[in-house]
Structures are given as C-alpha cells and as structure tokens.
C-alpha cells in the first residue's frame, strides 16, 4: 500500500461519526483554551486526558486510543488558533506562541482593523496547518523506515538528545530546567523494576508498586497548578476587549499576507521538527525574518498585517511539525507533545517507528483528522470570532470550579483510589510553587515519560556490550546524537556567558 492508500484509510477512520464529533469537540475546546489567558495547551490537554478516557470507555482499545488522540490533538492545534484572539483584542497572549502577535495585532485592533487581523490569523493558521500535514504525510514513512534500523544505543542517545533539547531552551534558567529534568527521571524510577522485580522507592506501599501515574502528575502540575496560581495571586484581571468590527480582510490585506504566510509556514514547520524549539520560537523567528526582509521595517509594531500573518502561520506549522518526531521516532519535542505521548502510552500504544505498522488506524486516523480539524477551525473561527471574543470575559469564579471538578472527578474516574487524589493535590501545589519560582514544568513531564524508555534502552545496549559504556560512542549514529545533545546544552550556555541574548521556549 502506498502513502495515499494509507491516508485514504485514515480518512475512513476520521470520518466515522464519533471521530468527527471528537475532532469537533477537541478544536472547539482548544480554541477556548487558546482564548482564555493563563490556560495553555499543556493544561488543556492534560485536563482532558481523564475525560476522554471516560468517554471512550465502551470502545475497543484501538478505537478508544484513536478517538482520544484525535480529541487531544485537536485541543493542541486548536489552542494555536485561539491564542491570537486575546493577543489582538486584549493585548494579552492566550498562550506563549502568540506573544509576538500582540505587537502588530493589538495595534491593528486599536486602528479599528481587529476583524481583518483575526481573519488573517485564521487563514494563515489554516494554510500553515495544511502545509505541515502534507509534509507530515510524505515524511512520516521514510523517517519511520530510517528509525526502525536504530539499535538500543541509538535510541538511548536520541532520547538524551530530546531531553537536552527541551532542557537547553526551556524557561529562563538552564540550571532550573536541568534540575526539573533530573527530578522527572527520578520520579520515573519509582515502582517495581520490570527486569529484576525489585521494588524501588516504594517504602512497602502497594499503591507505589506500579509507579506514579503520569495522568495524575500531569493534571496536578498543569491544570490544578494554574488554578492555585489564579486563586493565591488573585490573578483575575481582564482588560477592556476591543470591538471586532468587519471580519473579512480586504484584497490588499490578502495580497500583503500571502508571502508572510508562505514563509512562516515553511520556517515554522522546520523549527517544529527540532526537539525543544516549539511554536514560540517559530513565531519569534518568522516575525524577525519578515522584519528583516521587509522594504519598510519601520511599519512593524505599528499595525502591519505581515506582523500577524507570519507568526500565526509559523506557530501552527510548528505544531504540525512537532508531530513528526513524536509519531515517527517516539521522541516528544515539547511539553504538550510529551503529554500527548503519555496519553498514547496509557492506551498501550507506543509512538515510534513501529506505530505506522502496528497501529495504522491510530497514526493515519490522527493525521486525516487533523486535515478535517483544520477545516473545522477555519469555519469556526471566521464567522464565530465574535462569540469566542466573549469567552475572554468569562469570570474566574465560574471557570476555576469547573477546572477543579474536571481534574478531581477525571482522575478518580480513571484511577479509582484516594492515593491518586492526594497525589493530584500535592502535584497541584508543587506546580504552583515551581512555576512561581520559574522552574519549567515541561522538562519534568518529559523526564517522567521518557525515563522508563531511556532506562530500558540503556540496559539493552549494555547487555549487548557486556556492560561496556563505550558502545554509546562506538555506534556512529549514537555518537552523533550524543554530540548533538552536548552542543544543545553548551552553545546557549556559551552565548549567555558572552552576554548574548538567548531566545527560550516559554512553553516549557
């Protein structure tokens, strides 16, 4: 079967009525998550994992995994669309990848052109989303075929590269990011060792024998942590929302935006593939590039439509690009894709080179649903943008109890024990404390998800080499990945020491 045959089968899966409904709900909630300042895609995806697990209870494991991941991925790329709304109307980005959109988007809104800015953001996001999906379709097969030849040593080094990439660019302090990475790896060691059968850090407590549940930790850190932050810091402020006015862009707007959308899509896609870079860096780089090549760079920051079209295209293309290392190599490149990977593992689906052979329904169904979801987002965002603008005014007193209820009932519905509820509260408090002191949470989640796989591949590699660690340097591919990991940590460090400014991924 060729790529197009697999894609046709994927569309057959994605067009089933329940999957269409899951995609629609996912992109609708994703847009709302993007619109609401404070709730990022990581919190939104983590919060909905237990909800999807309950909703797919009657389906077979393969069907349940497909439907769940379709909804969760919809939240991820839907948030990229929604994030621009608050940037343009309120001068407050809904999530970190829309920070740069505020520079020109809010100025356009003040000039009475909010509708044109919002519609160009939606059109750019749609074009970029479709471009990144077409590239994903044609790159997924060759990359999976290449990755299938990887040995345990190559995989171990590739995962270290993934950890180093996310830690090297996450948050404001690399030391804090590395501390969180090691903390995540340590948490992953709790439980029964699958090889020797020895209980590690369980203190004779049976609830710890199976280790810490990823779902509970993720929901506590991201969703409850955000709730505690809003309550304890009284962060309820919502500014004055600018009126939207005429929605459709003029012919000149479309002409001015075509180039930035095309360049932003290509740049965003390739930045999205890089582990650790993510949508935030993609939007910054595309904005900087447009300003550099513009004949009139002075207009940027005063309401230039190119300053909205380029970053909004780039952040959506990056979210599509980030699915490539996740689906083909099993390496999440960002915090949100780490949570998506944790969700797939919950359903006993291992992302990686074998995903397309062993679970084609999940992999191609997801890719096809993203085409449909992007179309749904364009239809939703153009005529309903005024409705989404109203969501910004939702008072925190209604929103916070809903998040707490979904977190507590969702985790209990999946785990059904009181220990996980206590762990949920503990992780919520830890999430608040850590984010308040600028400790990035994405490296911790990544360490928790990748920890067992890193350990497993390291053991397998050392078994084949009779305990000789030099195997990681003797294998050429493994050595290249290790050198890449070291450079990813050392280069930003050297740049900082020389007084250069290093752009970091705020998603961490």
Automatic annotation (TrEMBL):
Under Pfam families, the record lists: TctA (PF01970)
Superkingdom classification of source:
Bacteria
| Ranges of residues in domain DUF112 | 20-446
Keywords of this entry: Membrane, Transmembrane, Transmembrane helix
Q: Where are the transmembrane segments?
A: 20-49, 69-90, 116-141, 177-195, 207-225, 266-289, 326-349, 361-384, 396-415, 477-495
State the name under which the record lists this protein. Tripartite tricarboxylate transporter permease
Which species? Answer: Paenibacillus aurantius
Q: What is the lineage of its organism?
A: Bacteria, Bacillati, Bacillota, Bacilli, Bacillales
